[in-house]
Write a structure and sequence with these properties.
One of its GO terms (molecular function) is thiamine diphosphokinase activity. It holds the Pfam family SteA-like_C. Keywords: ATP-binding, Kinase, Membrane, Nucleotide-binding, Transferase, Transmembrane, Transmembrane helix. Helix 3 links the parallel strand 3 and strand 4. The protein is globular and about 105 Å long. The longest helix is centred in the middle third of the chain and has 24 residues. The chain has three domains: 125 residues, Aconitase, domain 4 (Alpha-Beta Barrel), CATH 3.20.19; 196 residues, 3-Layer(aba) Sandwich (Rossmann fold), CATH 3.40.50; 27 residues, no CATH class. Helix content is 45%, strand content 19%. By secondary structure, it is an alpha/beta fold. The strands form two sheets. It has an eight-stranded mixed β-sheet. Strands 13-12-11-10-9-14-15 form a seven-stranded parallel β-sheet, with helices on both faces.
Length: 378
């Protein structure tokens, strides 16, 4: 393998993809590459990915590396974080098999992840899943005891200007399969016109599909400036003690916002906000609902999500994976129906036309003559 290209780098993959161009090399420091990060990288079509952390650590069977490899993107793992600092943004990098050079200077080497290596590491990770699951459950229960009062009754819900009461609310998280699921419920969105809430980058997901978010809620670390300026209302997720790092960014842009101090994830408080403001129905797209989802986010448990869903369950439906339930296919009967339907107006118009009536009468006379002639001959 020989690759020569410009390199782009970032500790956070979600920030890197904003600058990465097709044909460049992505330099990341991403332990256990998750599915969402992998798909965002695939969309940018880099020539290769250099990871100064373990793409599969063995903690759990993450799918990211397999997705990248199937997309034809080479992955080189370098178990040396110092290499990340030795390479600067926009350097021209050369990859000769598993060795890295800049200006013909040797930087280091790593392991090229092949299909066999990924399968082996994934199978090893699956063996550890039982231990990880036990720890995950313990952490979930531990934090659930601590957060139950805050989530279930003692939260200070901010007053918002947008009317939610008695309306459907669509909450979009930029999680697994969010694009496919948004596409699958596009008719629902256009007909019902629910309140549109984007959770951080979920706001940009809505813009991508031609919808303007009514509310953007989150810690503001992955939503674009464009989305913040276009949305109708901003709610910043703060820690329980009131600290909110995302506020600084909003203030720098001179935008108005509401603060929502709460434990848990931003998608949790988005659901709580919709519920407490009297939403008639809540639809979630791209949300995190299982252990693997949360491990990919780096969380040790899902206490707040468990409690929130316990509270609002009667009004919540997950649209996650809805695109896989049914995919419309054109069948021969559909084509035949269209053909017959198209003939009906033609037949009606023809029957009403004077010329057509004359032709039909001549045809009838011809048939009658043929019948009489046949009767005489026989």
């Amino acid at each position: 393998m020989f690759i020569e290209a410009i390199v782009k780098k970032d500790i956070k993959t979600k920030n890197l993809v904003k600058r990465l161009n097709p044909g460049e090399v992505a330099l990341i420091k991403h332990r256990d590459i998750d599915e969402v990060a992998a798909r965002s990288l695939v969309e940018k079509r880099p020539k290769a990915i250099i990871n100064t952390s373990k793409s599969i650590s063995g903690k759990y069977p993450n799918r990211g590396p397999d997705i990248l490899l199937k997309a034809g993107i080479a992955i080189i793992d370098i178990d040396n974080e110092e290499v990340f600092d030795l390479i600067s943004e926009n350097n021209t990098i050369k990859l000769l098999n598993n060795e890295i050079y800049i200006d013909n200077k040797y930087i280091g080497k790593g392991e090229i992840l092949t299909k066999e290596i990924i399968e082996k590491k994934t199978n090893e990770a699956k063996k550890n899943l039982g231990i990880v699951l036990e720890d995950f459950i313990e952490n979930t229960l531990k934090y659930a005891k601590r957060e139950k009062n805050l989530i279930l009754g003692n939260l200070s819900i901010p007053d918002i200007n947008f009317k939610i009461k008695n309306r459907h609310v669509l909450i979009v998280v930029r999680g697994k399969d969010y694009k496919e699921d948004l596409l699958a419920i596009k008719t629902y969105i256009n007909e019902v016109k629910p309140v549109l809430i984007g959770v951080d980058g979920g706001g940009d997901a809505l813009l991508e599909f031609g919808y303007t978010p009514d509310i953007v809620i989150g810690d503001m670390d992955s939503v674009s400036d464009n989305c913040l300026k276009k949305c109708k209302e901003i709610v910043v997720h703060a820690y329980s003690d009131g600290r909110a790092p995302g506020v600084r960014r909003i203030k720098e842009q001179g935008l108005k916002y509401k603060l929502f101090p709460a434990p848990g994830t931003s998608e949790d408080i988005a659901m709580l906000l919709a519920f407490e403001k009297g939403a008639d129905f809540i639809v979630a797209v791209g949300s995190h609902t299982n252990m693997i989802d949360f491990l990919e986010k780096g969380r040790k448990g899902m206490a707040s999500t468990f409690l929130v869903r316990l509270k609002i369950g009667s009004k919540l439906i997950d649209a996650k994976g809805v695109n896989k339930l049914y995919k419309e296919r054109i069948k021969p009967i559909h084509l035949f129906s269209v053909f017959i339907s198209s003939l009906i107006p033609i037949i009606i118009i023809g029957m009403c036309s004077p010329l057509s009536n004359q032709i039909i009468k001549l045809f009838q006379i011809r048939l009658k003559l043929l019948y009489e002639l046949r009767r005489i001959l026989w």
